[in-house]
Amino acid sequence: xxxxxxxxxxxxPSEGFDRIAFEFEGLPGYTVGYxxxxxxxxxxxxxxxxxxxxxxMVFNPAQAHDDEGESTLGDPPVEPVKVGFAALDAYVxxxxxxxxxxxxxxxxxxxxxxxxxxSQSDGDYVVYVDVRxx
Length: 134
Hints:
Blueprint: E1 3-12, E2 17-25, E3 29-35, E4 53-60, E5 81-82, E6 88-97, E7 100-107, E8 113-119, E9 125-132
Antiparallel strand pairs: 1-2, 2-9, 3-4, 4-7, 5-6, 6-7, 8-9
């Protein structure tokens, strides 16, 4: 099962985008798309995520916890993490259950985005989303 081990956000003004990247041990499948509301998986509880538009990323199969149920992220973003970039405003982990990991990203507007992946020399994989800066 691919394990999510890191989430990184960065601003790239000279290239015209902000990026959020997800590092995995193993390569998961994934979908990315706009949603009208951010909710927690399972409970359906609404999440107060800052932003004018929201991207939802769902990785499957994947998990963000080990066999003992401990998070594989140093500081799991179960509460929104504010980054405040030109395009990327905040992100939050909305689910890690039965082979699905869900993360929502608050954006400053409905902006164009590009999703890609690459493998690192250490064997880990990175899936990233570049969001066009307004």
